[in-house]
Amino acid sequence: MSTPAISVSSIRYSYGKQLAVDGISFDVSPGEIFGFLGPNGAGKSTTIKMLTGQLIPQDGSITILGMPVLGHNRDVHKRMGVCFEEKNLYLQMSAVENLKFFAGLHGIKDPDIKGLLQQVDLWNRAKDRVSSYSKGMRQRLMMARALINDPEVLFLDEPTDGLDPVSAKAIRDIIQKRASQGAAVLLTTHDMNEADKLSDRVAFINEGKFYAIDTPEHLKLLHGKRSATVRVKQGDEITELRIPLDEDVSGEGLKQAVGSGEVLTIHTEEATLEDIFIAMTGRGLQ
Amino acid sequence: MGAQVSTAGMIVTLLKKDFLAFSRDRIYSILSLAALILFIVVFWIFPMTVDESITVGISHHDLGMLLDADGEEGIELLVFPSEALLRSVISGDAEAWIGDDGKLIIRDVTDGESRPSGASKATVLVGLSFPEQFIISTAMGQQTTVTVYTNQDTPPEIRGAMVSFIREIAFMLAGSPLPVTEPDAEEIVLGTDRMGDQVSMRDRMRPMLAFFVLMMETFALASLIAAEISHKTITAILATPAKASHVLTAKTLFGTMLAMGQAIILLLATVSFSADNWLMLLVAVFLGALIFTSIAMVVGSMGKDFITTLFLSMLFTIPLAIPAFGVMFPGSTAPWVRIIPSYGIMQVLMDVTVYGMSWGDAWIYLTIAALWAAGLSAVGLTILKRKVVRL
Predict the structure, then answer these.
(1) In the sheet where A6-15 sits, what is the strand order?
(2) Strands A6-15 and A209-214: what pairing?
(3) Residue B111 pLDDT level (bands cut at 50, 70, 90)
(4) Where are the domains of chain B?
(5) Is the ipTM of this structure higher than 0.95?
(6) Strand (E) positions, B3-89?
(7) pLDDT digit string (tens) for A148-158?
(8) For the whole model, what pTM was predicted?
(9) Of B161, B162, B167, B160, which Cα lies nearest the Cα of B181?
(10) Which residues of B touch A93 (CB under 8 A)?
(11) A54: which chain B residues are within 8 Å (Cβ-Cβ)?
């Protein structure tokens, strides 16, 4: 087993009396996409802030690429990329100027800005001021900025939040590509579809605590309830029949439903991560 | 992955970004340029000469040789046809105008008379009414009474001067000292006696204009810092190898260079530098820029938008303008003004450019200003750092 790129042990943080993160622990391996799934205020962003050195954990420890992180660590920051939830770009500067500036802070003298902007489909607007960009374009530029130093660890805070399907897919493709190249990716989201599509493992976080850490498939197998919905026409009436597959091991229920009239549609359904999250925490993801 | 960036390299990168961001912000770059041009124009519009003459209204039927006194230095005589008219002008019920032909025109203000065309208004601060037999009586050594009319705008020293003036005329007429007793009074001039060597309004404006330049840059820098905080771009910087100390150092350098650069341009355009004073002026401007940059950091940390930043900038910088007003109106400043951080800077800017102040006299002002600059910088940096790390 490879050495984890990110190793977190019992970290805790509270804002005054408000406990934001309550002793969570996890590891992320190189090449792994680790999804942090939880509603707003669950502790996702506070965790990211501790991992990126913006906040110092009040308890516990964090190791990134084998180096301890307690606040700002120049050697760690050199090898990580962060895509913030806020679109914190210099709006009066162009995409090229934004990327050149951050490349300069990383000590990169000749950054491949063209390649990065082509990757996020912004090369044709490279010299326009960011203030003229749409939300999706800004998010793609945020992603390009996070990749400017070819990071070994990527922290992505709600990277596809509010994006159109095309922009969201473009971002997801980049994340998967970077992970396949060996980068450890920690992704926070409250979009269960995104977590499901992207993550090798997900962690359910609520009120600063982990409720589960596992692969999406395994979580669905363990906690989900599969069903099939059959719509049949009986005479002039259309009826919809829902058969719980976990209870219908012999398949008799499904056979009866299919034979009860003219079959119009059959849909199988499996539990979503959101269903499981709600079942485990008693709280929705929004 | 790039090479390790040195601290200097990091700060230069941040400085380049700050200059780029400033130059791209149309509001602040246009405001800075327009303000600088305006201040330079204002400086050259103000008069370089000082009008030290006093217009004195007199009423007498037969002045004759008395009018020769018009040659008296700093006194211009304006002859009124009657004492009543003289009294009404001094009291403000009427105005005295001088026509193109040099004749006196009296405009009754209470009747709402229109202003005489082609005439210029004369400001008569004091009036002298001589009795009918003044010349003969005085020449014969008899005691006479001359009425001196003044109003609330007449400075007390002019009243005293008029008494001396009358005594001199009487002496001239009588040809020998009159049997009058000199008043038991002594004139004490506080500070440097500039009698006959008054400072022009243009020279008095210089520190005030330099102050306004620094104030403008305070607002511009505070707005840039506020924008970095509200847009959380500082957070993005701190997610790179750049540390908070790099950001703060770059901001201090940027603010100081910006304010100092503009102030130097102003001083160059107002021909303030000389071979003897350039270093003293640069030190004063540097300390001033540092003080204002520190204030910009405090304001930038607190400001949330354009309006609050503007309001806070005014709130913090207007008290610093008081010493500049003190320089414009000498003798008007209270002793407590000396504790205002900008006092030393303004004093040096004024005294160096106008009176040729030496290092021996300037060092105390510059030392106090340096202490203020160090203290305020510490406060500004602390507040900004707390804000940055808590984002």
Answers:
(1) A18-28, A6-15, A59-64, A67-68
(2) unpaired
(3) confident
(4) 8-47+199-390, 54-174
(5) no
(6) 54-59, 75-80
(7) 999 999 999 98
(8) 0.73
(9) B167
(10) 17, 20-21, 24
(11) 235, 238-239, 389, 391
